[in-house]
Structures are given as C-alpha cells and as structure tokens.
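Troubleshooting: if your tokenizer reports a length mismatch, compare your output against this known-good record of 929 residues.
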Amino acid sequence: MRIIILFLLSFQILAQEINWTKNTPLIRSYSSPRSCDLNNDGVDDIILGGGVDGYPTPYGVIAINGNDGTALWQVETRNEMFTSPQFFDYTDDGIDDVIIGGRDAELRLINGYTGETIWEFWTNEAINPNDEGWFNFYTSQIISDQNGDSYPDILVANGGDHSLDFSELDRPPGHIMIIDGMTGIPFKTAIVPDENETYMSPVICDLNGDSNYTILFGTGGESIEGNLWATNLTDLLNEDISDATPLIPNSELGHIAPPAIGDVNGDEVLDIITQGFDGKVTAIDGSNFNILWQYEIENTESSAAPILGKFSSTDNNIDVFATIYSGSMSAYDDYYQILLDGETGNMLWSDSLGMINFCTPIAFDSNVDGNDEVLISVINNNGTYFENELILINFSENTQQSIIGPIPGGNVASTPQITDIDNNGLLDIICSMQADSLDPFGDGTFYENGINTMRISTSFTLPESEVAWGSYMGTNFDGHYNNGCDGELGLFAFPSQACPGENNGMINLYVSAGTAPYNYLWSNGETTEDLENLTPGLYSVLVTDATGACDVISREVNEYGITSFSQAPTCPNGNNGLAYFNSTGCDCNTSFCQFIWELNGDTIAQGDGSSAEETYKFLTNIGAGTYTATIIHPDGCEIQEEIIVPEGQLIDDIYIQNECIYNNNGFIDLIVNPSDSLHNYLWNTGDTTQDIFNLSAGSYSVVISDTICIDTLNFEIENIELEELQVITNYDEDGPIFENAAETYNTQLEIMNINNLPECVQIFNLWIETNTSNLSWSENGGILGEYESGNCNGDWCINITDSEELPGWSEISLIFKAEGIYEFNTFMNECTDYGDSIEITVTDSCDYSNINEFLKPNIYIETQNNLIINFQDQDVYHIEIFDIVGKQIIDHHSNHLENKIPLKKFNSGIYNLRIKNKDFVYTEKILIN
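Known-good structure output:
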C-alpha cells in the first residue's frame, strides 16, 4: 500500500469545505447515500440505510435535510438496511417516495415526505422469513409498468443466507423478482438457473437499442463459485430463466458487485464490464456475449464494482477503473487501483493508495477538460486512530489530490455521491462513514458512535447531467455509464474580459445548429442564453434543443491583464528614465484605449488610442518619481497603477560593518558591477579607494564619479556593545532585577508537570538585552532536540523568543531532560568574535514515587451507579473492568476528558479497573453497591 501525504495542487481543490455533518448513533452503514428533494425546498435531501446485522434498529432508514443536515425522518426496521435507495412518486403528491431494502426480507416503500411506510414486503411477525426462503434484498431497479396499473414496477434480487458458516456449501437458491410498485406484492418470481445463492443487485439494459431488455444478475458468493448471467425480460415475465446465459467461462467465485454498462469497443452496442469476487475484470461484447478481454492479478478478490469514464487523454473512448483487494477475505494486505483501456483491457495506470480501500469509487470531469477523474475513498491510520480521505485521481496530469480530510473515522463500504443538490451550478459530494475512529469496522454488534453523513460543497462547475459515474451503480443509479450530452448543436461562446474587482464579465452564446427553441442551463444556475455581470472563472452551459438533442460548451472569463515596468535614469538626478504600462486589449495602436500619465497630480501625457501618436504605452526621458498610469478601455473599464521610476545609482549595493566594542574594525564596502564604467572615489577621510576599513563610530561620505555622472553618498558607522547573558534575581516595583549570569551553574532534574504529564526535566531561564533578530548562538554537549509546544525530544532543547514582558529583550529557556555537562554561547550577529558563554552541569534527582499523582484520573461512582472517570489530558484511553475472578466485563476506548460508564447491570462487589494509554497503566479497585 502507499499511504501518501497529498498536497493541494489545483486552485479548484482549495474551495472544498464540509457544509454540514449529521451523526446517526448506534448503527453502521453499508448503504450508499443518494439524494432527492423530499420537502420541496428546492434542495435535494439525503437518504440512506443502516443498522446492525441481526438486530432491529430505530435508524433503519434515515432522511437528512440537504440544506442544513438536520433529520427529516427515520424509519424503524426489523434488521439492517444496506441497499441504496431508489425513488419514484407512487403517491402522486409531487414528492418522490423511497424504495430501500436489507436483511431478512426487508424491502419497503416509504412516503418521501412523511417517512411513513407505505408497504413492506414481509409483514408476518410470527414467521421468520428465512424459514420461507426469503433472505436479503439488494438494490432494486425501477422498471416500466409490467402489470398494467400505469405505475412502474420493481426489479429486485433476493437471496444470500448470511447466517450460514463460511464453509457451508449447500445454500438456499436466490430469486429474481418483479414486485408491484404500488403494493409490494411480487407477481413474477424465478429461481436463478444454477439454484445458487445471489448477492448481486440486478441490472436491466437495452444493449442493442431495440427495446429487447436484458437482465443481468449474479450468483455465488465469497466462498461459492457462481457466475454472471444474462436473461431477457420476457423469460422473467414467464417466471422461467433456466435458459439464461452464463457470461464468464472461468469464474472461480461468486459475482457480488453489479456490472457496469457502456460501449467500450465503439460498435454502438452497449457492452458489459464485470468484476467477480475472484478479482477478475471481464469485458463482454453486448452484441454477442463474447469475451472482449479479461484482466487479472493473482491472489486477489473484490466486492467493489468497476466504473466507467473517459479517463485517458489520448482518446475519447470509455475506459474501466477497478478496485482490487490483495489476499483473501479477512486477511487483505493491500488494495490496488487499476485503470484499464476499455477497448483492449491493457493496463493504463495502477497504484496502491491508502491503507484500506473497499468501496466503489465515482468519476467525473472535475476540471472540465474533457477527461474524467476518479474519486476514491480510502482509510489510513495516523498511528493513533483511523481517518478517512477522499482522493481525486487525475490521469491526464498523473496527480492525486486530497479534496477533503483527513477526517477521523472510516468509510468501509459506502460509495459517495456527487451531484448538485441545491442547483447552484456547483457540485456537492455526499458521503457517509463510521464515526468510530479507533475501530471503524466494529465488532458486528455494537456501534456506539454510529455514522457521520456529510455534505461537502465544492467549486466543481461540471453540469450535473455530465457526471460520468456519480454514485453507486452510476449517475442514474442503473449501472449505466452516463454519456451526458454527445449531440452537436454547433455551439460558439464568446467571453469578454472583466474589469478588475467589478465582476462585469459577459459571455455571448451562439447556437448554429439544432431545432429551436433552446433551453439553457449554465453552471452558475442561470437559464438565459447569454450571461452578464460575471466574476472571473470557468462557466459551462448545457443547451437542449426542441428535439431533446443537447450539447455542452465551457468558456473562461478573465480579468483585464496588466503589464508594467520602469527603468531608472542613467545618473542620479538624471532625466532619461522610462516607464511602461499596458493592458489586455490595448496592444495595437488603434485600440481606442485611452492612456493618461500623471506626476504629482499633473497630467504630463495622454492619448485616445486612435493612432500610434495617441497611444502612450511608453513614457520616456523622465526623471525618478512615482507616476500614475491610467488606461480606460473602450467598454469603460478603468485600470490604474502607480509606477515607480527609481533614482539612478552609480553603485549597485552597499555593505556596512559597524564597529564592535570600540575596536576600530568597522568598514564600508561599495559594491559595483565590474562591467560599469570606470569610477573615481574621494572619501572625507582622504581615501580614494572603493572601500574603506578600520573605522570607528562616526559619519562618513564619499564623492563618486565616472565619465558621465557624479554623486555624493553619506554613511553612519555605529558601535556595537557586547550584550551579556543575564539571570533574574528578584523583582521590585519596576519589574525584574537582573545580574550577569555566572560562568558555571549546577542544577538537578525534577519531576514537573509538562502539558498535564509528569516529566523528569529542568528548565533554566536566561535573558539578554537584544532582540532575537540580532542574536546568534551555539551549543555543545548532549543531543540537542527540537522544542515544540512544551515538549523536548532530545537530551536538551533551546527555546529563544522575543520577550513580550520586556520589549527589546530576548528570553532564553534551556530545557534539560538528561544528565550531562552543557555549554551555551551567544554572540551578536554583527560581532561574531565577541560573545558570552555559560556551562551548566545537570544531575538527575527525580523521585518517581509520587509520579501517579500527576497521572491519576479523577474516578468515582455516583449514586445512580455510573462510573465517572475524568482525565487530566485529552488522549486516547483504553478502559477495562474485570470481575473478581478476572473476567473482563467492560472493554471501552475513549478520547473524551469526561466519561460516564453505566454499572447498573452488574452485581454488587469489588471490581478491578484498568486504564491504559501510550504513557501509563493505572489500576484501581472499585466497589459496586
């Protein structure tokens, strides 16, 4: 695996932020969130399933307000709901209703507005549905009306007895079913042809575009061989799919993940791309069910579905992205991300990002460059806890960018959705993850922290209709690649440039083909043909004509650019300087851009840009000064800048060394480019050299001349005093009393409370009357560590800061953590040969007998028999309680300062409490009454 630190490489990536986070307690979720407006506020809301395998839950189905993250409703279910929801308005109230399923024959239609259950597949509380041959339902497909009631019906698979042991090979058969969408009653049911179990969500597709629908379904499981099958809708309506075609000749395990549908070989017939649990990725020709290609890595598995997109910049074909696990179930040791050429199956790219990567990814064109990127959700561990990260993979630029995070917790099997939930022209990402950062995988029964569902607002401007693969089973939740708009309406878009800071950009759109009238949907939400009053940025428009044909075009609005520079006169006080000022659109000499130059409030040049004579980009033969340059564009945009023409100089730079402690060692160094003309020097000391040395504090001047210029320069040499190290001996009404530090000191290590933890340490404070910018230092003895937030990771550390209490002073803290002899030296930056030094001998006298007083948490049992544990420091603690015979009765991890643990269900008696973290182990007996 490759755990990487991801730097934000694109300006778009910087604009992502978490809009809201909603916590739902006590459950896990393998359901992928999907969005639909349930309260008619114009913002899509979020629906997903959850629960715990084998237990009823009040949070089986949850609906979250997409606007603010508050709960809309929740539905109690008999068992875990792990499928992804589908939507249709069966109640004719203008709001879609929700179809969602899960374990033990849980399949429900829920009123989208109220959250009330309209129907559920299994209602007999007296009989276990497993005893009647009904097991898990998987993500359903809404299909056209099949029973003549004018409402769509539901295609779904049922099967998979998850209660059976992994080694059990005799398993009950799966069923492919059509259920009445209005009543929940199955009216067409067929057993899978190999009478094997099924775990796959079925996919229905019209491969040839001839309205003859093919149903794809899978059989087998993690340890049971199965296949991917194709049958036709007619056979299912006849309740006999025994003639279904097995599509994979060398399948070794079951087919769990649903296939992806798209034309990968360019023959205008949809093809089938599937990934079995044995890890093999297979492309199947939709016209004849022949194998186009297979890709396999030995000793791998996968329950993630392949996804499709136009990822490669070398062609415009559909390619395949797959997620593959190395090893076998429960013992995976790595996770691979693989990009395959859709036509040939050749590997185009591979990596191993993240510590864990289970879930199916999504794909979209994040930067609107015509190529899709992939967004994966990975789990890493920072050494203390697990954290989740969303990583955007750009194949064209070969970059991986973290768009948000890392976020504590972990997404185990929930595919994010990308969609524009508030119709503002910017895409949003909806994702869900386990909130427990210490163990996001849980123990299968107890999920105290529940799940966190979040909305991430982005700056991605791609129209929602153009997202290639935006959710689990695709953008449209049907397993099909979303080809978006591939029509040709002859779009032309002409952006203007915006005046800096005025947001007045425009885009003029022209449609040259198609059938009027046209509908327009811009990435900023506007529906007009043209755009006005635009800020700089990238804009896309989706145009649809009267026949339904559509096309997309993108253009960028930029601000007027500015170019300016200046050149100093040749000599000091000269008048042959130069200034230049220009703006985008004013390059030619007939641009009609107005140019105005001012100096000290007076206009010195202006022109209307109608000719070369009226175009004043250059201002020549000018002296030093600050010139105000203004350009007024023909559209009225006014741009102004102050341009500084510096004074002419005979020398390039100056270095002055001040005198140190009255030793006459000052000097003045005049730095001149060797290519300059010959210079002559006359100092007020009588020297005629370029540099003068052995100077005491005082004033100095030099007359410099060459063949065309003359100038006089004045300098000041100062005397630098030696500043000695000081210690504070006392305080009076005026503040601290200082004395010079001694040459040697002896001190001892002591137990001190450092950041609420005991440490054997000694801190020795020194002062010096100068700012840190003037001070340098050196050291000798022991291993010098780095000092950060009170912590020292060496034998000793040195921390020097400008004093807030005493301006002009520096405070020096020497932090010792080991015995030894240490030397500390200081000197002024300008006088490195003069300084001060002290030597400190450190011995260890730490008494560890009372160290527990620093560590001991505040522990007591309140009257309601709740164990209260209050820690002194924010950290991760492992809390265990054992009964008198040593049996563990509580095993709990906490990162909270205050903790309450109920003890009511335990018998009275003496129990042993053990608390551990990375720094200590603490034990104590507690009495439960």
